[in-house]
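quick q for whoever's on today - can somebody do inverse folding on this one?? i tried earlier but teh output was garbage lol. tokens:
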């Protein structure tokens, strides 16, 4: 893999689209230019949408078996190009190639693609009596606009694109300007197999033209599926209102973990670490607040710090790196600001000082409370606040106090007790003795300001369809 990628382009109607200008994509691990991505505007967006719109009728008319076969072929093709895509992700996103890094992400993308290919939404008979027959059909929407973030650029694109195709829609994919290269290459690979116009791509720098806003207000895009921040998701919902777009919005969270007094500190330390620090904490459903009962607070902190102290942070192409850099300067500065404020009132147990470039060590800070910004503001990076509690009712109240609710977790030696606490948490998903382990067969989405709609499984596939009922 070259150190700088210059050849990846946009695709519309199965053909490469050239743009007047390109923008730099930086490698967060080295600071060097990772590549140059096409800087598209309204004309390129209209061309991509037109291609998707023209391809929709024929694709919607294909059989369920044909669409399943196409999705399986896409999964095979991604797998065949796994190392190429993993190298691209590390080059632009910074995460390590090994471990729970880029190769793991591509493996997840392949698994999700294959599971999605196996789903179907058959016609359902609601009534078949002497009074008549009532049938319910799931029909594709049309053109789906996919807007993806920079933390998992290939896997989240697959989460968006494959169910859209499987249910008979066509797609225009827009990656984050921070990490466009692997996503654009993914669309190129799909177009080596699929009919022209089914999957099209646009990319744009953060500048005067807002590609996301143009997509969410475009009259020929029937649905937007968006993964990203709460603020941006709210804007997508607002700009999509005039055209009554269907929406799936998987937005930010500030996931709470609650450790009950009967938990075994040594047994849960590894799970706590990865629940909080997977992808360097740059995960919507990472654990971002940890509430620990007073009886075992110090023991949990000690075990967690002992595990975290052995984690190697380094440039992603180094095989011994376990965690990489923070992906971009704005996010790095946010983490540094929140940690600096937390140090004024809390106790730094590990880390706490920025490294060189965009590297920030795993940071654990105890002695914080609800009024500390590191607790109530989503850090989206490698810093975990630990909050001491004495009454589980208080822990639940604090966990539920925020206006977001994506995920949560309960840690205990008694699963029944843990489930009882879990059912009282105000979030879309709760894990027992783990955190963040999403699966393609389990619906995933948030409550409150963390989301609108769900992804994955049959329920997620339904989000790409409208219902039509026929009386006969």
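ok took a stab at it. sequence:
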């Amino acid at each position: 893999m070259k150190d700088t990628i210059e050849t990846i382009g946009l695709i519309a109607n199965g053909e490469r689209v050239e743009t007047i200008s390109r923008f730099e994509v930086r490698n967060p691990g080295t600071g060097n230019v990772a590549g140059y991505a096409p800087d598209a505007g309204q004309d390129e967006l209209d061309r991509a949408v037109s291609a998707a719109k023209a391809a929709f009728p024929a694709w919607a008319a294909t059989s369920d078996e044909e669409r399943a076969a196409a999705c399986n072929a896409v999964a095979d093709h991604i797998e065949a190009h796994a190392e190429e895509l993993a190298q691209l992700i590390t080059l632009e996103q910074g995460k390590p190639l090994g471990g729970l890094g880029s190769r793991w992400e591509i493996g997840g993308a392949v698994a999700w693609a294959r599971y999605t290919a196996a789903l179907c939404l058959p016609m359902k008979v609601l009534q078949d009596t002497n009074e008549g027959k009532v049938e319910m059909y799931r029909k594709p929407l049309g053109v789906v606009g996919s807007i993806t973030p920079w933390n998992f650029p290939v896997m989240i694109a697959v989460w968006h694109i494959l169910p859209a195709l499987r249910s008979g829609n066509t797609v225009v994919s827009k990656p984050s300007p921070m990490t466009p290269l692997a996503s654009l290459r993914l669309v190129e690979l799909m177009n080596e197999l699929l009919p022209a116009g089914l999957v099209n791509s646009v990319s744009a720098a953060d500048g005067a033209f807002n590609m996301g806003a143009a997509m969410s207000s475009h009259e020929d895009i029937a649905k937007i599926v968006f993964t990203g921040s709460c603020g941006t998701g709210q804007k997508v919902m607002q700009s999509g209102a005039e055209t009554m777009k269907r929406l799936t919005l998987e937005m930010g969270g500030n996931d709470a973990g609650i450790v009950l007094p009967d938990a075994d500190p040594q047994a849960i330390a590894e799970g706590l670490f990865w629940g909080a620090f997977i992808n360097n904490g740059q995960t919507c459903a990472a654990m971002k607040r940890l509430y620990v009962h007073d009886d075992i607070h110090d023991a949990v902190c000690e075990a967690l710090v002992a595990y975290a102290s052995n984690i190697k942070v380094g440039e992603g192409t180094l095989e011994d790196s376990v965690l990489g850099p923070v992906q971009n300067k704005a996010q790095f500065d946010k983490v540094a600001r929140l940690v600096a404020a937390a140090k004024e009132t809390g106790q730094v147990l590990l880390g706490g000082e920025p490294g060189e470039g965009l590297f920030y060590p795993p940071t654990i800070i105890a002695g914080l409370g609800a009024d500390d910004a590191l607790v109530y503001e989503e850090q989206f990076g490698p810093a975990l606040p630990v909050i001491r509690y004495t009454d589980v009712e208080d822990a639940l109240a604090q966990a539920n106090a925020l206006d977001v609710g994506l995920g949560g977790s309960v840690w205990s030696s008694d699963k029944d007790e843990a489930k009882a606490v879990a059912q009282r948490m105000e979030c879309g998903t709760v894990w027992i003795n783990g955190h963040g382990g999403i699966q393609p067969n389990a619906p995933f989405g948030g409550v409150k300001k963390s989301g609108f709609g769900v992804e994955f499984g049959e329920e997620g596939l339904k989000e790409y369809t409208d219902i039509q009922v026929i009386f006969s």
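fwiw The CA atoms of residues 166 and 321 lie 37 Å apart. also DSSP finds 15 helices and 22 strands in the chain. so keep that in mind when u check it
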